[in-house]
Recover the amino acids of this structure.
């Protein structure tokens, strides 16, 4: 065992020396390889962080949201509807929610108007999200007017701005008092937008939804788990599509690696010839070349991955943001939480090291079977 | 579902492996028909040179297979969030009927690959390549298995439908159902423990004997197979219970979850490595009599047996530590 380790150590030593003798060529390959890993790792890290972010955001949302449908379209919850839900075992809390969208012609963007259930906003006042603060130049204490859908002008005082930390959910949010909300939208009294139900036991959620659908055939229960699953598949799908598009790059890289490995310089050929003449076997040369590939792969992988990490979590992933994140006028500015996932690293390894190894196999063998006398004579 | 990155990676690696094996099949046939070590002809020289390429290629394919077993399970585990009813890898594998066959095929291929690699190793160390025909014959037998496994895997991934309500580990590994897994599950803890420690002891003893005295190759292999079966059924019947600290949760996949600190890997990795090494001892045993392998086979067998012995010991120790650390009381003192 010790002998074996020693042997590998000498092989690695020799390989490093031999790599250093042809710096320009190997650095070129290393550079391209690193860029490939960087691109793929950026995509993977970014989508995973987004997925994680979605999961974090939804962790605090109610387990079930009940909407009423009329002719297949979302409709208001009429008075008495919440009582009709009745007592369902496992439901801790049920409450009507009031929210809606408002199109602001000034910034050409939609806001989400919402009434907090704890009544924390006083009448005539509003609390705004950070993106709204930026786009309309608002600060606490300012007044702002919105023209409602009925044409009347409503003026509110900004009580406060929501903290930056919550931006991913609150960018376009505007919180107001219930009476203001009803007056602004001419919302019929006693009606609600939808109903939020809190279920304590996650295993009961499905049963609760079944019971709801049975009790209220005109309703549509939306489960948090399903929303989460949808988000996860959307991000996975986007990542997969980008990776599939990038597979052309992987293929190109494979061809480059093949080219590089098979285009042995005369000097390199002579080196192999001399090694064989002094007693190296074909197997030893293959081992040396294997170490060479492994060293290049691992260096490129590490460098590319670290660069991608910095790119995604410290530089905002400028290169892939438009494809992966989605788009909106009032898009939240947020910092992703750094998160590295084992499966991702493993997948990435498969995507980069595996094609490289497959591409250089035949050229390595071709180099290794070179006859010593043929090379040294030529 | 096909656009999951890990699925693309797995399918890609399977495709490359199948292609590589398919490309080497004609060569394998040629070797079997034309190989003649005594000849100095051009053709023989060419064949000898090519064996280097194909040995390397196959080592590469088989190592990729080993890596893909891990990735496959890891991926199934991660994807369980996407299917209604799935709580761990079992749910994902149960989404369609291809899941478990695909996993089993991969595991079987893993062990066969390890055995082939062992034969390849001893053969390439001998001066006259005595096993070259057998080796490539076995390779031809392995190729359809690899293709079959890749096909099962592709079927599994192509038929993953998110709207299927799958069953979780709780229903599959419960005491009432009628499968082998359920039979192992239903074993009461005390006999199951005797069986587990007995079989593990036998496996360790056989491997250690081979390690110390260089004898009993077939016993080592049989012990390894027994140890593997005992390890899996032990995990099913009682080790899992201690890990989850729950008297009825028998799932062998949940132990791989982050909630349980990935403890399962500490259990499965030594078990699989030890089994592969033990089976490999049996695979090279028939060739101990070949003249040029007289010293190579025993020496390599001892090294493999050492790996098997330590691996089984480690797996047993890890399982025991998990039991001792647990707060669950299954056996009254």
């Amino acid at each position: 065992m010790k002998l074996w380790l020693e042997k590998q150590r000498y092989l690695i030593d020799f390989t490093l020396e031999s790599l250093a003798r042809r710096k320009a060529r190997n650095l070129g390959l290393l550079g391209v390889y690193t860029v490939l890993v960087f691109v793929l790792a950026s995509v993977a890290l970014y989508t995973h962080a987004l997925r994680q972010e979605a999961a974090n955001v939804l962790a605090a949302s109610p387990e079930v949201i009940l909407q009423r449908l009329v002719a297949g379209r979302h409709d208001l919850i009429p008075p008495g509807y919440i009582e009709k839900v009745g007592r369902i075992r496992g439901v801790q809390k049920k409450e009507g929610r009031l929210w809606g969208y408002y199109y602001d012609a000034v910034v050409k963007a939609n806001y989400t108007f919402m009434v907090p259930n704890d009544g924390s906003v006083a009448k005539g006042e509003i609390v705004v999200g950070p993106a709204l603060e930026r786009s309309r130049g608002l600060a606490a204490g300012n007044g702002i007017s919105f023209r409602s859908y009925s044409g009347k002008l409503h003026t509110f005082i900004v009580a406060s701005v929501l903290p930056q930390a919550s931006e991913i959910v609150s960018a376009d949010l505007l919180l107001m008092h219930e009476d203001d909300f009803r007056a602004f939208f001419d919302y019929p009294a006693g009606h609600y937008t939808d109903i939020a139900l809190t279920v304590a036991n996650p295993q009961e959620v499905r049963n609760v939804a079944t019971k709801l659908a049975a009790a209220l055939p005109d309703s549509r229960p939306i489960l948090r788990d399903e929303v989460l699953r949808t988000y996860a598949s959307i991000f996975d799908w986007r990542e997969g599509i980008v990776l599939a598009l990038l597979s052309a790059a992987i293929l190109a890289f494979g061809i480059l690696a093949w080219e590089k490995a098979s285009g042995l310089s005369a000097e390199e050929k002579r080196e192999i010839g001399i090694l064989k003449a002094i007693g190296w076997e074909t197997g030893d040369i293959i081992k040396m070349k294997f170490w060479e590939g492994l060293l290049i792969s691992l260096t490129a992988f590490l460098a590319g991955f670290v660069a991608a990490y910095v790119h995604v979590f410290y530089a905002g992933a400028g290169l892939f943001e438009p494809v992966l994140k989605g788009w909106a006028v009032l898009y939240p500015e947020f910092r992703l939480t750094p998160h590295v996932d084992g499966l991702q690293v493993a997948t990435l390894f498969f995507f980069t090291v595996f094609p490289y190894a497959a591409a250089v196999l035949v050229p390595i063998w071709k180099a290794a079977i070179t006859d010593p006398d043929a090379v040294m004579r030529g | 579902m096909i656009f999951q990155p890990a699925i693309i990676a797995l399918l890609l690696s399977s495709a490359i492996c199948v292609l590589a094996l398919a490309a080497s099949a004609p060569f394998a046939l040629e070797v079997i028909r034309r190989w003649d070590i005594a000849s100095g002809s051009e053709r023989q020289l060419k064949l000898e040179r090519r064996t280097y390429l194909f040995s390397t290629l196959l080592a590469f394919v088989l190592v990729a297979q080993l890596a893909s077993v891990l990735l496959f399970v890891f991926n199934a585990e991660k994807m369980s969030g996407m299917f209604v009813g799935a709580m761990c890898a079992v749910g994902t594998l149960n989404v369609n009927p291809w899941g478990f066959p695909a996993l089993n095929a991969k595991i079987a291929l893993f062990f066969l690959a390890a055995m082939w690699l062992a034969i390849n190793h001893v053969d390439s160390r001998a001066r006259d390549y005595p096993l070259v025909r057998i080796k490539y014959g076995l390779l031809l037998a392995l190729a359809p298995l690899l293709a079959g496994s890749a096909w099962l895997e592709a079927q599994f991934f192509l038929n993953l439908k998110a709207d299927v309500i799958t069953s979780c580990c709780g229903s599959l590994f419960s005491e009432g159902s009628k499968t082998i897994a359920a039979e192992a599950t239903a074993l009461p803890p005390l006999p199951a423990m005797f069986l587990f420690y007995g079989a593990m002891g036998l496996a360790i003893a056989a491997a250690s004997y081979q390690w110390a005295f260089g004898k009993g190759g077939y016993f080592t292999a049989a012990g390894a197979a027994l140890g593997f079966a005992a390890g899996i059924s032990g995990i099913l019947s009682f080790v899992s219970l201690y890990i989850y600290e729950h008297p009825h949760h028998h799932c062998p996949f949940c132990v791989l979850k982050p909630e349980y600190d990935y403890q399962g890997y500490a259990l499965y990795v030594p078990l699989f490595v030890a089994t592969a090494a033990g089976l490999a001892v049996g695979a090279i045993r028939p060739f101990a009599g070949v003249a040029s392998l007289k010293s190579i086979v025993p020496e390599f067998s001892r090294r493999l047996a050492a790996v098997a012995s330590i691996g089984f010991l480690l797996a047993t120790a890890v399982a025991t530590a998990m039991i001792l650390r647990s707060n669950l009381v299954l056996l009254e003192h």
In short: The interface with chain B takes residues 1, 44, 206, 228-229, 232-233, 236-237, 239-241, 243-244, 247, 282-283, 286, 342-344, 346-347, 350-351, 354-355, 357-358, 361-362, 364-365, 368-369 of chain A (CB under 8 Å). The longest helix of chain A spans residues 224-262. Chain A has two domains: 2-58+229-377, 62-223. The longest strand of chain A covers residues 153-161.
